[in-house]
Amino acid sequence: MRKYNKNFKLGHFDAEKSSCLLIAEAGVNHNGSLELARKLVDVAKEANADVIKFQTFKTENLVAETTSMAPYQKENLKKNQTQFEMLKKLELSESDFRTLFEYCKKKGIIALSTPFDLESVDLLERLNVPAYKIASGEITNTPLIEKIAKTNKPIILSTGAANYAEINDVVSIASNSSGGLAILHCVTDYPTKFEDLNLNVMKTIEKMFGLPVGFSDHTEGLEASLAAAALEARIIEKHFTLDKNMEGPDHKASLNPDELKQWVRSIRNIEKGLGDGVKRLSEREEEIKEYMRKSIIAKRDILAGERLNNDNIAIMRPEKGIPPKYWKQVIGKKTKKGIMKFHPLTWSDIED
Question: Is 254 buried (19+), middle (13-18) or exposed (0-12) by CB count in 10 A?
Fold first, then answer.
């Protein structure tokens, strides 16, 4: 497979230089309410997420009226309704999105939304969205992908339920966008079981396509995202909600506001901890080292001219004298002067 341009930039984020881009996925967890959507923006901003992302669709263009809900949607909603009926209640209007994006700008957080139909791309273009997310379910929707690619804006591709050939098909189209392309490993199950995650696929995708790789996390809890951060994912996305007990298809597999804060904080701490791979002492290690390491110490008062042996010297903390690795060279030597009990021996204390 051909190699592609690694360039991917969004706001302050540069895939080759910056910290991981953290996307707080609001999705449809606003339940069709602009007021709740604003509250989700507040939560994402307070958590220090880089991006908040919604979903834009016209239900009539997205799903046939007779389409059943997905198994996880049935389980979460426990209602006898079609997918059309469910999604229709979760729509936001263009006016809603305009108000919402202006609010995001005011709050200082990047706003994105995933389009699910061609009209929604036009809507988001009118709102000057800075980048696009292609949802896993749209991975075979070539007309939508081509339309998004023509905007020449950064594209994030989710790959749930996709094989490598399908990913390659999309990459071949999306790579024509001068805005850059990033690929997210994803498992289309809500919540995803840990045994189904296969996070090492990120490495495979990066090797195959030479593009920035990340992770769209549908598991419960934080562990999967933290593991992805440790594997140096460049983008991590996670659903969040105001309350997991709210009615809706995605709330139960989402983080609550406190968990979202912990999610961001934990990933940033992992990034700090990864370092640059060069072994060196920290400033604190330099300070602590002498108190934790040992040296050759006088076990008792030692007279001048006395020979050193197991009876009068020992290996103890602190590291202020001759290192223990020279023990054999020190044994049998005579002292040049008297040495007080517990005094660390130095080379100037003993004969050559």
Answer: buried
d(CA 303, CA 105): 78
| 224 plus 301 within the same structural domain | no
Task: Report how far apart the first and last C-alpha atoms of the chain are (Å, whole number).
Answer: 68
Residue for token pair 């709102």: 127
pLDDT of residue 5: 56
DSSP string computed for 148-202: HHTTT--EEEE-TT--HHHHHHHHHHHTT-TTBEEEEEE---SSPPGGGT-TTHH
User: What CA–CA distance (Å, rounded) separates 145 from 7?
Assistant: 19
Domain that holds residue 221: 10-274
Average pLDDT over residues 31-58: 98
Structural domain count of the chain = 2
Q: How far is CA 128 from CA 110, 265, 304, in A?
A: 12, 30, 85
Residues 6+ apart with CB under 8 A from 207: none
**What is d(CA 75, CA 193) in angstroms, rounded to the nearest whole number?**
16
User: Which is nearest to 338 in space by CA: 294, 304, 300?
Assistant: 304
Whether residue 58 has pLDDT greater than 50:
yes
**Do 173 and 295 share a domain, yes or no?**
no
Quickly tell me which residue has 């850059």 as its tokens: 180
pLDDT tens by residue, 201-252: 999 999 999 999 999 999 999 999 999 999 999 999 999 999 999 998 889 8
Q: Which of 274, 294, 317 is the last residue of a domain?
A: 274
pTM of the full predicted structure?
A: 0.89
Please report, rounded to a whole number, the percentage of residues in the chain having pLDDT higher than 70.
98
Whether the pLDDT of residue 2 is over 50: the answer is no
